[in-house]
Amino acid sequence: MKGSLSNNIRLLRFVQSEMTQAELGQRVGVTRQTIAAIEAGKYSPSLEVAFRIAGEFKLPLEQVFQWQE
Amino acid sequence: MLHWQVIPYREKVAWLSIAAMLATFGPYFTLVATGYFPVTPMPDLRQLAGYAVTAAVQVTILIVGHIVLRRSNPLDAKVAADERDIAIKHRSVTTAYYVLITGMILVGVVMPFSSNGWHIVNSALFMIVLAELVQYSVMVIGYRRQAG
């Protein structure tokens, strides 16, 4: 079963007063490089981190992450 | 192209470990392979001294390297490993385990039929160093593949 996880984190960071990757990483408990890898679609975060990221933007999970078949 | 300033701290530590091993055990195993250490009954003090110097230099390189890395990346050094770091570490250790267990079977079960003494000791040492190299290499590859 093939599919890919995409996200709007870069856009959401920009909208939220240009929050840096390091700031977001610090708030959700991961490194800046992990946020960069998630944004680039090269690393799929755990559900826990995904929910934390969505929580930082005060949005439901599906508005931050999308699964594409 | 690697940009040293932006790569993760733990990847830098992996590069340091690879460099320290190549810089120390590379020359050691070259000397062993070229017959620099004469084959004498154990314990062979010259061989032991060679190994002791190699290990001491490796530890020194690692200590100095860690100090330099911590001073040049003070914030990154304090950050705890996150889930991606742990996943990469888990994958690298698992891969290295298979290398180590294969090496130990060869050294401990097969080699005693054809070799003895320092040949077996150095072969075991080589397999440990190889497993360590594989572990850090898989770690570096993991970070490079996921670089944002």
Describe this structure in words.
With 69 residues, chain A is mainly alpha-helical. Chain A has one domain: lambda repressor-like DNA-binding domains (434 Repressor (Amino-terminal Domain), Orthogonal Bundle). Chain A is 54% helix and 12% strand. Chain A has 5 helices and 2 strands. Chain A has a two-stranded antiparallel ribbon with strand order 1-2. The longest helix of chain A is centred in the C-terminal third of the chain and has 10 residues, at 47-56. The model of chain A has no long low-confidence stretch (mean pLDDT 93). Chain B has one domain (9-145). In chain B, 77% of the residues lie in helices and 0% in strands. Chain B contains 5 helices and no strands. Chain B has helices at residues 9-33, 45-72, 74-78, 83-110, 118-145. The radius of gyration of chain B is 18 Å and the shape is globular. The model of chain B has no long low-confidence stretch (mean pLDDT 91). At the A-B interface, α3 of A face α4 of B.
Which bin fits the share of residues in helices of chain A?
A: 40-55%
Describe the global form of chain B: globular
> What Rg of chain A do the Cα atoms give?
11 Å
- Give the count of structural domains of chain A: 1
Q: Find the CATH topology of chain A.
A: 434 Repressor (Amino-terminal Domain)
- The number of domains of chain B is 1
Which class of chain A in CATH terms?
A: Mainly Alpha
| Overall average pLDDT of chain B | 91
Main sheet overview of chain A:
2 strands, antiparallel
Secondary-structure-based class of chain A equals mainly alpha
Broad structural category of chain B: mainly alpha
Helix-strand sequence of chain B = HHHHH
Largest interface: A-B, 16 and 15 residues
Uncertain parts of chain A: none
Q: Taking Cα atoms only, what radius of gyration of chain B do you get, to the nearest Å?
A: 18 Å
Low-confidence stretches of chain B: none
So what's the overall shape of chain A? Answer: globular
Would you report the number of β strands of chain A?
A: 2
What percentage of amino acids of chain A are in beta strands? 5-15%
